[in-house]
């Protein structure tokens, strides 16, 4: 499992590989690793099971046990799987790179939610807004400036 900083770089970096399927595989794998971080941080062992054909969805299900607010990213995980299917199931598609870019954006959203939730447990109780993190960052900056 790669460190979160390495995973963040995967979601931030422009996609440069000409192999669209390999890029989609990398994004899916990185998204799974983000969920693995969540599960191990809570003392669990990440599953190798699949749900609807995706380990990502099984990992989400495992990660949500005991924390209903974690369900806030369920649809994000499903969107990652959806875009993965769009990219990998059709070799010829006029806007396949747009689909891959969308998969990258959704994967980054998943990363931001989970890494934020690891910092602020209440994140996702009402929505997936990272306002508690932004408020903490703003307060820290004000203290530094004083």
Helix content: 55-70%
Structural class: mainly alpha
Strand content: under 5%
**Total number of strands:** 0
Q: How many DSSP helices?
A: 6
Radius of gyration, Cα only, in angstroms?
16 Å
Domain tally: 1
Provide the succession of SSEs.
HHHHHH
Task: Describe this structure as you would to a colleague.
This protein is an all-alpha fold and about 150 residues long. The protein has one domain. It contains 6 helices and no strands. The termini are far apart.
Give the structure's gist in a few sentences.
The protein has 146 residues and is mainly alpha-helical. The chain has helices spanning 4-12, 20-41, 55-64, 74-88, 96-119, 131-145. α2 (20-41) packs parallel to α5 (96-119) and α4 (74-88) runs antiparallel to α5.
Give the SSE layout.
Layout: H1 4-12, H2 20-41, H3 55-64, H4 74-88, H5 96-119, H6 131-145
Output the keywords.
mainly alpha; single chain; 146 residues; 65% helix
């Amino acid at each position: 499992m790669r460190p979160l900083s390495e995973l963040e770089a995967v979601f931030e970096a422009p996609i440069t590989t000409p192999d669209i399927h390999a890029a989609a595989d990398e994004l899916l794998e990185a998204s799974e690793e983000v969920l693995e971080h969540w599960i191990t941080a809570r003392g669990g062992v990440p599953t190798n099971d699949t749900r609807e054909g995706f380990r990502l969805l099984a990992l989400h299900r495992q990660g949500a046990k005991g924390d209903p607010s974690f369900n806030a990213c369920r649809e994000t995980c499903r969107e990652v799987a959806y875009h993965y299917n769009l990219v990998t199931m059709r070799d010829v598609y006029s806007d396949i790179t747009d689909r891959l870019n969308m998969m990258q954006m959704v994967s980054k959203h998943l990363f931001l939610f989970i890494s934020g939730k690891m910092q602020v447990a209440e994140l996702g109780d009402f929505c997936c807004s990272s306002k508690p993190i932004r408020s903490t960052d703003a307060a820290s900056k004000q203290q530094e400036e004083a």
